[in-house]
Amino acid sequence: MSGDPDRLIQQKTGGFWSEARRHWCAYCGISVSEACATNADKRLSRDHLIPRAHKGGFVTVPSCRACNAAKGSMSLPEFMTTAYFEKAREARRPNRASLRDLWLGIALAAVYRARELERVDPEQGEAAAE
Q1: Residues spanned by the domain of 63
Q2: DSSP line for 27-73
Q3: Global pTM?
């Protein structure tokens, strides 16, 4: 892969926070207005693809409170294997993020995490390259 991975992934996914996508849960595709009708908390939340508990937090996606709570501190790959995720995807709402886009988001989060490790401790970056 040549070029800047950040830009490439943003181009491929269309950006999770673009105006066209920011009002929909990336996991289940529920809209803000639909979430408001079923939940006292009237906002979507930001979910960290690599949880802060795992030293992530670099890439976020719009998420309804229910999906965010269900994911908790799991990594996205862990969450994708749960019965909750499978059930949430069954509705096949058209505005949910594609599985490809979610995996690309994880890739972007991993790139950011690797850069952060190298910035904090350049030797860790070198050891990972060996």
Answers
A1: 15-129
A2: TT--BHHHHHHH-SS-S-EEEESS-GGGT--S-EEEE-HHHHHHHTT
A3: 0.76
